[in-house]
Amino acid sequence: MPQAPADDLFANDPAAPQALPLGAQAVLLRGFALAQADALVQCVQHIATHAPWRHMQTPGGQTMSVAMTGCGPLSWISDRRGYRYAAHDPLTGQPWPAMPQAFLQLAQAAAQQAGFAGFQPDACLINRYAPGARMSLHQDRDERDMDAPIVSVSLGLPAMFLWGGATRAERPLRVPLQHGDVVVWGGVDRLRFHGVLPLAPGAHPTTGDCRINLTFRKAR
Ligand code: SIN
Ligand code: FE2
User: Fold this and answer.
1) Which atom of ligand 1 is nearest to the CA of 177?
2) What's the chain's average pLDDT?
3) What does the pLDDT look like over 41-86, one tens digit per residue?
4) In ligand 1, which atom is closest to the CA atom of 159?
5) Exposure pattern of 142-154 as b/e (b: 16+ CB <10 Å)?
6) How far is the CA of 205 from the centre of ligand 2 (A)?
7) Distance 21 CA to ligand 1 centre (A)
8) Which residues are CB-contacts of 10 (< 8 A; sequence separation ≥ 6)?
9) Residues 118-141: tens digit of each pLDDT
10) pLDDT value at position 1?
């Protein structure tokens, strides 16, 4: 049988543990959101009726392949002027939809499990990946509060997460993420480069033909 490449972390290993360290202060909590996943997706669908999915422009004039929306007091926007957190959805002119209690509870429980007690996210970015959509290697550095972790929840189709180092030059580890998985990174790992490979086509009972990712942040 062909060997999985050494950087295909935990691929298809049913005996792999549920909390997989990705760094001194980074961990993959496998299936942590599974029990709430269907409810989370319903919340996302509701949020998108108020703050519609959109493909943002980068300051360089590129259109992002992921569709985005958000909720919470703040959410992240990108346009030709740059990246920033904003209290209003530029598409509707309205405040972002409130963060559902189920989102907040899950984010806080995952952060606590990962060693970040007292996490108070004020922003939830919601990314929707259609087949082929990707997220190139980047750092999450637009948040004012670098002491708070990032909590990232995967829903729907599986994806290959790229988990890099402190510099772009470091070759990223490939970490398969499934429906219900949660990755938390903070502290010394807060500025690790990360990304997502182009999504493979598929069908998922909860999300259909896409992957949805929630990232919780303390932006201010
Ligand atoms: C992100 O880095 O904002 C998204 C990560 C993911 O989709 O898993
Ligand atoms: Fe990110």
Assistant:
1) 8
2) 94
3) 999 999 999 999 999 998 889 999 999 999 999 999 999 999 999 9
4) 8
5) ebeeeebbbbbbb
6) 26
7) 18
8) 16, 20, 175, 176
9) 999 999 999 999 999 999 999 999
10) 42
Ligand nearest to the CA of 215: 1
* DSSP result, 129-158: EPTT--EEEE-----S-SSS-EEEEEEES-
Class of CATH domain 7-217: mainly beta
Rounded CA separation 168/173 (Å)? 12
Q: Whose CA is nearest to atom 2 of ligand 1?
A: 195
Instruction: Check if 213 has its Cβ closer than 6 Å to any atom of ligand 1.
Output: yes
> Ligand 2 centre from 110 Cα, in Å?
17
How far apart (Å, rounded) are the C-alpha atoms in residues 38 and 10? 25
Given a contact cutoff of 8 angstroms between Cβ atoms, the answer to whether 32 and 57 are in contact is no
CA 48, CA 69: separation in Å to the nearest integer?
A: 7
